[in-house]
Write a structure and sequence with these properties.
single chain; alpha+beta; OB fold (Dihydrolipoamide Acetyltransferase, E2P); Gyrase A, domain 2; eight-stranded mixed beta sheet; 21 strands; RNA-binding; ligase; cytoplasm; NA-bd_OB_tRNA; protein biosynthesis; aspartate-tRNA(Asn) ligase activity
Amino acid sequence: MQLDYLGDLRRTHPCGALRVSDAGKTVTLMGWVNRRRDHGNLIFIDLRDRTGITQIVFDTDQKDVLEKASQLRHEYVIAVTGVVKVREGEMVNRKVPTGEIELAVSELRLLNEAKTPPFSPADTTLPNEEVRLKYRYLDLRRPEMQHNIELRHKVALAIRNHLSERGFFEIETPFLTRSTPEGARDFLVPSRVHHGSFYALPQSPQLFKQILMISGCEKYFQIVRCFRDEDLRADRQLEFTQIDLEMTYPQQEQVFEVVEGFVGAAWKAAGITLPPKFARMTYDQAMEQYGSDKPDLRLPGLVDVKSSFPADALTTLQLDPAMPFVAVRIPKVGELSRKERDDNKALFTKKPGPKLIDDLKRLEKSWPEAVTKIRELTKAAADDFIVLVGGAAGEAKSAAQTRVARMAVYAAAGNLRMELARKYAAKHGAFNGDLKDAASYKFLWVTDFPMFEWDEEAQRWNAAHHPFTSPHEQDMEKVLEDRDLDAVRALAYDIVLNGMELGSGSVRIHRQDVQRQIFRALGMTEEEAKQRFGFFLEALEYGTPPHGGIALGLDRIIMLLAGGESLREVIPFPKTAKAVDMMVDAPTPVEQPQEDQLELMAAFPGLGNHEWELATTADNLLKAGDAILGNATLPRQSKQELVLALLYAKAYDDSRATIRLAKSGYGLQASVLAVQVYEAALNSMIVGADNELAAVLLMTVNNDVKSLARALKYMDLNEEQRKMLEEAMAVQVIGSWPTLEERVARLPDVLRPKYEAFLPLYETYSQWQLSVLAGRVGGLTSKEWTVQLGRSNEAVAFALRVVVDYFSDVVRVVAGLFGKDPAPLEAWEKAATKVLQQV
RNA sequence: GGGGACGUAGUUCAGUUGGUUAGAACGCUGCCCUGUCACGGCAGAGGCCGCGGGUUCGAGUCCCGUCGUCCCCGCCA
C-alpha cells in the first residue's frame, strides 16, 4: 500500500480531548487504528493515542477518501483532517469521554501500516504474560498500561516537587561502585582496567547518602535504581526504584513528617487525599497485637484471651501459662465444614512451640463462660470465625529463650491470621476497598525495632537493620557495656501499608566510638570492619553530624495505586520470574571477538590466554555434544541404553562443572572433577564394548596425569591453601562413584561378562588414575606436594584438556550406540585439535 | 535448590472412559452492508495438540523426561 508523507501536517489535538464545545472546528488528529467498523459506504474508525479515543467517520461525501479508509487495518498509523461534528440521539456513545462528538474526515494520510499484531491493544482479553512481554511495545499501547506509566510519572514528579520545596536536593550517586552492606547478592561488573577486580551495582545508595550528610548536603533525595541479584517474585524485580532520602539533625518524627508529606503528595497526584498523619506502633506492640512487624490494619488484630480461662484450664489444654494466649478473628466467614477446618489447620506453622486450638465448640463444652468471654473480648459477631493460639507447655527452657518463644507464638498467630484472611478474602471483603478511597489505605509506622538478632546457626548477633543504625539513646549504655543486647532497641522504623512494607529507614550512628562498639558486638574485628567500610569509618572521624533517613519502594507504591498484582504492570520493561527480558532476550551469551574475551578473562585472575581458549573450546564442545545427543532425548529402552544415557549425563554435568571451576581459576578442584569425566568416558567404552578404544584411552589418561604431576611444583602449604584443599576433597567426595564391585553388581546380566573382562585392565590403570589426584591432593597435608592451589594454570589446563579430550569420546561412543550422527562433532574437533596442539 | 498451576489455530479457551477427519469465539482473507461503537451477514484460510521418549492395535488424552510462563517456599528489607 502507498504510504503518505507527514508533510507539513500538524496535529492540532490529541485523540482524547475533543468535546461538544469543539463542534465545527477543523482539526487534525494522528494516532493508531484501534478498531474499525466498516459498513461499506460508511466506515467508522476509533483513532487511538495515549490520551484516548475519537471516532472518525468516512462516508460517500468523499469517495476517494472512503476508498482509502477501507484499506485500514489494526494498528495502522494515520493522520486525519476533518470537521468536528456533534452526535445526536442514538449516535452518542456514553462509554467514552469523546462520545458526544465525531470527526468527519476530509483528508486521510496513511503514515504507516502494521503487520497483523499477535494481539491488539484494543482486545478485551489479555494474552498470557509471555506474549505480552515479548511484544511489550504492543502491550504498552493498551490504555491501562498508558495509565500506569502516566501515574508513575505524576507520582514521581509530585514527590520530586514536594521534596524540592522542602529543601531536599536530588543528588546522583554512582552505579559502578563497591558492595554496600545490604544482605543481598551483588551484581558484579568486571573491570577492564584492573584485572581481576569488580565493580558492584548498588543495592541501595546507603553509604553514599550518609557520606553526603557528612559532606554538608543536609537534605538529600534521589529516585534511584537499585540492583539485587536475587530470585524474582511478583513484587520483586532485579532492578527496582527507590525513593531514597537522608537528612541531618533529624528527630525520628521529622523523618516521619517528611515521608507523610511526600506520600500525601504522591497520593494526591493519584487523586486521593490522605489524612496528614499515619498511625504509629512499636515493634513489640505490632508483634503482640498483630503477630507481624508489618501489620495489616484492615482486619481485627489478635486479642489476649488468657484471662477468660480459669487457672487450671491452661494446664488441661497443655498450654504454657508464661506464653501468650490469643484469639484470631476473621469476620464474616460463617459456618465451616469439618473438612475445611482441617484444611485450615495446614495453614498453621509446623514449628514446635505454638499450639492451635481451632474447635471453639468443643472448648465451649468444658468452659462455656470462657468462650462467651472470648466472644465479648474479640467483639465477635455470630458469623465471625475464631481460633485460639497459645504456647505448648514445656517448650521454652531458659529465660533467654522465653522472649524468642513468645514472639514465635505471636508470629504463628499472625501468620495464621493473614493466611485465613487471604483465604476468606471474598467473604470479609476487607481487601476489596475502592482504589480511590483514602480509607482503603491503612498506613502505619512501626518503630523501635530490635537492634540485634541472634543468629542461631552462626552463634552470633546480626544487625537487624544494618550496622549503621543507631541504638536508642536510652539503650546506649547496654551497647557500650555489651550486655542485654537482645533488649536494645534501634532507632529504626518501617512504613507499612496494608500489610506490605513500603519502606525502611533509621537514624544512623554518627559517633565512631558507638560504631566501633556495634561492630564489636556483631563479632566483626577491627580489620574486617576496616576492610569492608574503611573509607566510611574514616569519614565518620571528621565531624559527622547526626543524620538519618529512609528509602521507599516506588514500584510498589505505583502498583498499589494502580491496583496491580505485580510489579510488571508498572515497570515498562520488566523481567520474568527466571530473570529474562523476553523482548530483547537478555541475558545472552556474548559473541566474543578476541578483545572482549580479554576483558572477561581479566575478571578471572590467573587464567592464561591458552587456558581461556581451552575453556571456550570446551564450552563449545559441550554445546556440540548436546546438539547431537541431548541428555533428555536418549531412548532408554534397554538397560544398556539406560547406563549409557546416565554416563553421558554424568560426563556432561561434570564437564560443565569442571569448566566453571577452571574459569574461576580453581585448577585443582577442576582437575579432581575432570577425573570424573574420563571415568565416564572409560565406562562408556566398556559398556559400548569398544575394548580397543578403551585401552588406548587408559594409556593417554595415564600420560595426562603424569604430565600434570610433572607440571606441579613442590612448596609449603599455608592456611588458605589448606582450606582450599578441604574444598577440593569435598568436591572429590561429592563427585565420586560407587566402588567397582558395586558397579559391576548393578549391571544387567548381559553386560556383566564384558565388564568383568575389563576388570584387570581397569584396576591396573583406572583405579590408580582415579586415585592419583585425590591421593596426591591428600599428600599435600604432608607438605610434600602442592600447587599454587586454586590458582594454577597448569592444573586449569589439565582439567580443561581432560574435558576436551574425553568428553568428545563419550559423545562419539554414545552417539554411535544410539545411532545418532556424530558428524557435527568433526568440524569442532578440528578446531579443538588446533588449540590442543598449541601447548 | 524445592513445591504447585498452566502449555491445543495469531489470541483466549473447549476437547467426555484412550477410538473416525481436533472444535468454538475473537482476530485474519474475500465478498455484501450509510449510523456503528466488542457493528452485522455470507464464504474461506489457518494446527509438529511446547519438545523428546515410553505404554498401547490406537495417545491432544495415560506414564517418564525436558523446555517455557506464572505463583509460592528457600533467598531477598
